[in-house]
Specification:
By secondary structure, this protein is of the alpha+beta class. The protein has eleven helices and twelve strands.
Length: about 325
């Protein structure tokens, strides 16, 4: 990192790289702001020694270094982190010939005051509409590693952030065309627009996620000829959509899900996937058993859109 990140700032006692290291140690020590450097790091000599530091810069000095950083320095830091990730991460050397790489992408709302940098009024889930920022992440699910961590303004949602997050993951994992064909982009409804799905398909990825439009999902669900009750959740039903859907640049499978709302009305969503049933089974770490359909073998990664899809596969369709 010392060679990659060059901040144009005069060094008196601590170099810019050392002050960045002090900020990093403060984060690892549980600090939620630079103002905690003095109490968490500067006062703990053993902690400083553990990270190869003989002393720690004062919090205001660290803040000055961050203020002196430019957009170029941020890019340099990203490149340095990518090198560290490729050297020590478990997801980077993934064997794409043996199995698919599963990449989960989602946004997390981070409410904050209206005067903070990047703070915009937007939708924050349970916090409804308020000021804050959005944290976008790409996670290599089977390795439980964060591949990409990017901060967006509060008015950005996954439908807008998906493509830059995928491109950042391509750089971190060095995904060429062959590796993209063996990678799965899994998202919630926020990333399931026609444009986003087709963009992923055109780049060669597998796509597995919910359709963006709830109205379109309801209309497609009305075409399902046969519904099946989910064995794990009897209140939910699933069924294949067989009507043609023009617009997708590659063949996709579509599975409709419906469940009762408190009012008694049906609520619908549609899963869109390029995966074959056996691919879903393998990704969820199930194994086929000729006796009762499927047998659980190891860790269950059924969270998110893949869960319902895999369970439909379990019923033999």
């Amino acid at each position: 990192m010392k060679k990659k990140v060059v901040i144009l700032q005069k060094s008196v006692r601590h170099t810019p790289a050392q002050k960045l290291a002090d900020a990093f140690v403060a984060i690892l020590a549980g600090g939620r702001g630079l103002n905690e450097i003095n109490t968490r790091v500067r006062s703990a000599e053993a902690l400083q020694r553990a990270f190869g530091r003989e002393s720690c810069a004062e919090q205001s000095v660290v803040q000055e270094t961050l203020n002196a950083s430019t957009a170029l320095n941020v890019r340099q830091m990203e490149q340095a982190l990518n090198e560290i990730f490729r050297r020590h991460g478990a997801a980077y050397p993934h064997n794409y010939d043996e199995g698919l790489q599963l990449l989960d992408i989602d946004m997390t709302g981070m409410p904050c005051g209206p005067n903070q940098e990047g703070s915009r009024k937007g939708y924050f889930g349970k916090n409804n509409f308020r000021y804050g920022r959005q944290l976008g992440r790409v996670i290599a699910t089977h390795y439980e590693e964060i591949v990409v961590d990017q901060l967006f303004t509060g008015d950005v949602q996954l439908t807008t952030a998906l493509q830059p997050l995928v491109l950042a993951a391509e750089e971190s994992l060095e995904l060429d065309e062959a590796k993209r064909r063996r990678s799965v982009i899994r998202v919630d409804a926020g990333g399931g627009s026609f444009d986003n799905v087709n963009w992923c398909l055109e780049r060669g990825y597998h796509f597995h996620g919910k359709m963006f439009s709830s109205n379109r999902a309801e209309a497609l669900a009305a075409t399902v000829e046969e519904w099946f009750t989910d064995r794990r959740k009897p209140e939910r039903q699933v069924g294949w959509i067989t009507v043609d859907e023009p617009g997708y640049v590659r063949p996709v499978r579509r599975l409709a899900l419906r469940w009762r709302k408190k009012t008694g009305e049906w609520r619908h969503t549609v899963l869109v996937s390029t995966l074959m049933p056996r691919d879903v089974i393998n990704l969820l770490r199930y194994t086929v058993d000729r006796g009762d359909g499927l047998r659980y073998t190891s860790r269950n990664y059924s969270c998110g859109p893949a869960g319902g899809f895999a369970h439909k596969v379990k019923m033999g369709t």
